[in-house]
Write a structure and sequence with these properties.
heterodimer, A: alpha+beta, 3-stranded antiparallel β-sheet, 9 helices, 11 strands, B: alpha/beta, globular
């Protein structure tokens, strides 16, 4: 008899020692990039969430280390550029990053060192997925996990355009887009994300979104008792809520946490093209994307440049995106 | 630690001073977050830098490196002045009422008896007044001006908030806020825990820093209680085990002493270790010293240790100096007094101060043997790595052997954590390549050395030829064999002298050090580990995490020395009648017949309260606010400047550093002054790395890739240094090049009316491994250590800094 893993409610417990089958799989996908009429699964998985308590985080980077180890990525040994962030930004080899902000509280004149773990927020309404022109490159499961499927990725970078949090990064090596998977592979077999497992202070916890909200409420109460009147939960409504949430001591000022978006929304360009001109746009973008893949593989790094944005804009308006780009996809 | 990591969750207030727990001990720090989240505990950080620990603290106060004693004596003064004293505890569980000799005193920053020539004190006057019965005279009313309490009051009187601010640079309002938060913990139902590490030890008066906080904790009644204690956070995995089993040049296992050359025979050695009680009826547990020592000698030499030959005492080496510590060894190398140096799991090229002197010393050896899992800088000290190791290999004749060893994850055995827990572990991987266990290497060398002695004799072959070596495979003793030997066993049938009943049969493992004898019928390699491997098996391998009533003791998880006790001095958690000071936080209590509770009592189990004092290891039966002559630099901590300081000692301008710290002749000339080196430097660890190991790991290297120094925005502006720019930092002893991290987390302080800038220098980089090549702070630090234990002064020294275009090419 085979054991089926159960949905994890915590990242603290040890994994089962016997092999287990995934408790969710492709049958639980609710959205697929560039694909209409996705057949909806006949079951709804419990919504999951990772909660990052910024007030408990000590900035030790164990989460970064665990992420590298689990995903077997190889971030470069860079230079020190006068800050603690290393690597200096998210990369195709670094899906999560501690960002450090030195903020002087104007009310108390006291320094606060705000350390935020940056990475994919796993939006309920994912801008990356909506922007993605490659069928099946981005999927969303009914538990809320947004996953990239690299074999379907064409490296166009539109996911980054669609992302209100500036998260995905395109590899210069294989021209695929990468970001945090919420450890969908671990979660499927009953384990929490690697970062949550490694976090020594349980600043990162994982479970059902409902449980995480309840846990956050306790933490917020504690912070308020310590004088953080504006402590609160970051679960922005503009993207339908997120499956990665923050407890912030200053929830009224998310931007002080190294530019965390105050009210993130999917770019109107992406929303417009999904909503109004989806069919025409997709047809055009499909052709453009194939050109981009062949051309881009050898010709350039797949960065989203101004002309990409302009091309997307034109797509939305029903124009030929290549008309004044010299055939450059 | 007096307490355990898990006990920290029981505290009301955590003070992190002399350490950076979140950053250097992130896993253990979880218990601080637990105390904050579930007890509502507060966290105070006092540190020259706003650290990652400070980032989650409730209150932060800056302090000038090397001025901690002034701060702590200031807090004690404030507590006394504001009646924030746990009076019942102080009167009954400390030596506050003991009378001090009339000829003891303090003036000009010095205690009585100073001999400038010898750099030492004659400590005769640092003692109690004794009656005709040999016991110490006391005044329980604390009225006598010579009682310890009044002597302490007089001693700390000078440390006013103004004085503290002037010396430490801590703004007065911040200092007073810290005092108030600490003072609340004098209530019997409030506790504070002190978490410290190398930020206190690595000073020329490091031991006195720790004394200062220990005294404060006694005044608050916070020793022996849940959520209290003096908690030293040990850095290296198993550095606690290292000290326990006596890997110090002047110790043997279980904190017993190697004899000095004056102790030529067994009786002389024992005569200074009688430890007779200083007050009537006290336990003075060290009276059992001969039992532990004889059992150790039996473990060493087995049947060759007999009553007739004084248990082979003559086989022990005798010290001609207080200790052959690291600094002395490097000094001796520089004088051609060392031929062969063994580095086992040690990287002195980056760990000993004044690296230039270390390089010169290693270069004068005939042979250097390095046993290590990694290719260390020390093993490659002779290689030219440009500016990062600017040596000429042709001029170095030292023969270097690298013996690759396994690392902890490939070994079986026990690691002792900061809370004294011996946690057995099993190998997680097969050793790579030619790596061998340290035990195999040592045994193989030993067998060959013994063979040479057998064949060729020698000046004194007996200790070598008679060493007990009863292992199944003499070429590789097994971890189990060594662990059983350290625990100890009966060598004959043991009977209870009172009842005549048989306690143990010959050959059986002892279950506690209480069973050890001084008549040769027991052996134990390390008496404090007795109970770790008994007839019931390996207690260190226990993994039962049950914890009745969630008190945080976990008595069935691993084994804690001594006697599986989780909180030392736990008798002091109860009042005079034996009831817990804090009924909501009981630990042990007296039930009318015996002591019982959640921990193993640190008192004879049937000793009624009021008769035997709670500090059974001390001859006094109580704890010491006045430490007699037990420390070289004074019975009370007194403010001393670092050897390199921006200001003169306010008590005595002639006094440099610690007046009794050892200073070798040539090193005094290598000390800098603030005219030439205007900035205070301090060194520390970063959480991304472990010491000099993890730079060999590409993951850690990516997370913190390159050597940097941290300075304030003000100093950067003053020196024209930009964020991320390259700087040169130099001291009287050397220079390094680094990237500049310009930060608001370091602010200039005002001390003695002048601004003091701090330059923060993390360690972790060298010229081997995966990270970018860099330097350790030891290229800059002075060659002087703590007066009592010779820990180098890495936390406070002087440097200069300037922008630099590029690293030089050697």
């Amino acid at each position: 008899m085979k054991d089926i893993a159960t949905s994890p409610t915590t990242a603290a417990s040890n994994p089962p020692v016997q092999p287990t089958e995934a408790y969710f799989n492709s049958g639980d996908i609710v959205r697929i990039s560039a694909t209409r009429n996705v057949p909806q699964p006949d079951r709804q998985l419990e919504k999951l969430a990772k909660l990052i308590d910024v007030s408990k985080c000590i900035g030790c980077k164990a989460c970064q280390s665990a992420c590298i180890e689990w995903n077997d990525t190889h971030p470069a040994v860079e230079e020190n550029v006068g800050v603690y962030e290393n690597p200096h930004d998210l990369t195709p080899n670094m899906f999560t990053l501690m960002r450090f902000s030195e903020w002087v509280n104007p009310e108390t004149d006291d320094l606060e060192w705000l350390i935020r773990k940056d990475g994919c927020m796993h939006c309920e309404d994912p801008g990356c997925l909506k922007a993605c022109p490659a069928p099946g490159a981005i999927v969303q499961y009914s538990n809320g996990i947004v996953d990239f499927v690299q074999e379907n990725c064409i490296g166009c970078g539109y996911c980054l355009t669609g992302c209100p949090f500036n998260i995905p990064r395109i590899s210069q090596v294989d021209h695929k887009s990468y970001k945090c998977t919420l450890c969908s592979d671990r979660v499927a077999v009953g384990q929490g994300p690697a970062c949550a497992k490694a976090c020594p202070t349980q600043a990162i916890v994982f479970g059902t979104k409902e449980d995480m909200k309840a846990h956050a409420a306790e933490r917020i109460e504690d912070l308020k008792s310590r004088g953080y009147e504006n402590a609160g939960l970051y679960d922005p409504a503009g993207v339908g809520g997120t499956h990665v949430m923050y407890v912030l001591h200053h929830a009224d000022k998310p931007q002080i946490y190294n530019g965390l978006a105050e009210s993130p929304r999917i770019s109107p360009i992406v929303e417009g093209w999904k909503g109004v001109t989806k069919t025409a746009g997709l047809a055009a973008i499909g052709l453009a994307a194939i050109g981009a893949t062949l051309h881009g593989l050898f010709a350039r790094g797949n960065e989203v440049e101004d002309h990409d944005d302009q091309a997307a804009d034109k797509l939305v308006k029903g124009e030929d995106p290549d008309q004044d780009q010299g055939g450059h996809g | 630690m007096t307490n355990s990591w898990t006990d920290i969750k029981n505290t009301d207030l955590v003070i992190v001073m002399g350490g950076n727990a979140a950053e250097a001990h992130p896993c253990g720090f979880k218990w601080v977050t637990e105390a904050k989240a579930h007890r509502g505990a507060k966290l105070i950080v006092v540190d020259p830098r706003y650290t990652r620990t400070a980032s989650v603290a409730d209150y932060y106060a800056p302090i000038r490196p090397g001025s901690d004693i002034a701060f702590l004596m200031g807090v004690i003064r404030w507590c006394i002045e504001n009646d924030k004293v746990q009076w019942d505890y102080v009167r009954n569980y400390t030596n506050a009422s003991f009378l001090v000799r009339e000829d003891f005193g303090w003036s000009d920053g010095l205690f009585t008896g100073y001999d400038e020539e010898k750099r030492d004190f004659n400590k005769e006057s640092w003692d109690y007044q004794k009656g005709d019965d040999g016991f110490v005279l006391t005044d329980p009313t604390l009225q006598d001006p010579r009682c310890v309490w009044n002597m302490l009051k007089a001693h700390v009187d000078v440390y006013t908030p103004e004085f503290v601010e002037n010396i430490t640079g801590t703004p007065r309002d911040k200092f007073l806020t810290v005092c108030q938060m600490i003072g609340e913990c004098s209530a019997p139902d409030r506790t504070m825990t002190s978490m410290y590490a190398l930020g206190w030890t690595q000073h020329s008066k490091g031991a006195q820093n720790i004394r200062g906080m220990a005294m404060l904790q006694l005044i608050l009644g916070n020793i022996g209680v849940r959520g209290g204690g003096m908690n030293a956070l040990r850095g290296h995995s198993n550095i606690q085990g290292l000290t326990d089993i006596g890997l110090m040049s002047n110790l043997i296992p279980g904190y017993l002493n190697i004899p000095t050359e004056k102790e030529t025979d067994w009786q002389t050695y024992l005569s200074t270790r009688t430890f007779t009680p200083l007050r009537p009826g006290q336990t003075s547990y060290w009276q059992n010293y001969p039992k532990f020592m004889v059992s150790f000698l039996k473990a060493m030499w087995g049947d060759a240790a007999t009553a007739e030959n004084d248990w082979a005492y003559e086989y022990l080496p005798k010290l001609d100096v207080p200790a052959y510590d690291l600094l002395r060894m490097v000094e001796l190398m520089n004088h051609d007094k060392v031929n062969l140096y063994f580095c086992q799991g040690f990287n002195p090229l980056l760990s000993a101060p004044d690296r230039g002197k270390v390089t010169r010393g290693l270069s004068r050896l005939k042979m250097l043997v390095v046993m290590d899992p990694l290719a260390t800088e020390t093993a490659h000290f002779w290689e030219n790595h440009g500016a990062h190791n600017d040596v000429d290999p042709a001029q170095i004749q030292t023969e270097v052997l690298e013996l690759p060893t396994t690392c902890f994850a490939e070994d079986e055995g026990a690691l002792v954590n900061s809370g004294r827990w011996l946690q057995w572990h099993w190998p997680g991987a097969t050793p790579p390549g030619e790596a061998k266990h340290d035990t195999w290497i040592m045994a193989q060398i030993w067998l060959r050395v013994r063979e040479l002695y057998r064949q060729e004799g020698g000046a004194f072959p007996d200790p070598i030829l008679n060493l007990a070596w009863n292992y199944a495979d003499p070429g590789e003793p097994m971890p189990e064999e060594l662990a059983r030997e350290m625990n100890g066993r009966a060598l004959a049938d043991l009977t209870d002298p009172a009842t005549g009943a048989t306690v143990l049969r010959a050959g059986q493992q002892v279950s506690s050090f209480g069973q050890l004898r001084d008549d040769g019928t027991t052996m134990a390699g390390c008496w404090i580990y007795a109970g770790s491997w008994t007839e019931d098996g390996n207690m260190m391998a226990r993994r039962d995490n049950s914890d009745p009533d969630d008190v945080g003791m976990f008595l069935n998880w691993s084994f804690a020395w001594p006697a599986n006790r989780r909180i030392l001095y736990n008798r002091a958690s109860a009042d005079l009648e034996g009831n817990p000071w804090d009924p909501s936080r009981p630990l042990i209590s007296w039930n009318g017949e015996r002591w019982q509770g959640y921990d193993v009592p640190d008192i004879p189990p049937t000793a009624p309260p009021g008769e035997v004092g709670p500090f059974i290891m001390n001859q006094e039966g109580v704890s010491r606010l006045f430490s007699r002559g037990l420390m070289r630099d004074g019975p009370f901590p007194t403010h001393m400047e670092p050897f390199e300081s921006p200001m003169a000692n306010v008590f005595n301008a002639r006094m440099r550093g610690n007046p009794v710290a050892r200073m070798f002749e040539t090193d005094a000339a290598r000390l800098g002054t603030s005219d030439e080196f205007p900035f205070v430097a301090t060194s520390y660890r970063l959480t991304e790395h472990f010491h000099y190991w993890t730079k060999h790991n590409p993951v850690n290297a990516a997370l913190q890739p390159e050597f940097f120094v941290e300075i304030s925005e003000e100093l950067a502006a003053e020196r024209g240094i930009t964020k991320g720019g390259r700087v040169r930092v130099w001291s009287k002893r050397g220079e390094v090049w680094a990237k500049a991290v310009v930060t608001k987390r370091i602010r200039p302080m005002t001390c003695g009316g002048k601004p003091v800038h701090v330059v923060g220098i993390p360690l972790h980089w060298g010229f081997m491994g995966s990270a970018r090549k860099g330097w350790g702070p030891n290229s800059l630090t002075p060659f002087v250590g703590d007066a009592n234990v010779d820990t180098p002064e890495f936390k406070a020294f002087l440097v200069n800094i300037e922008p630099a275009a590029e690293e030089p090419v050697a």
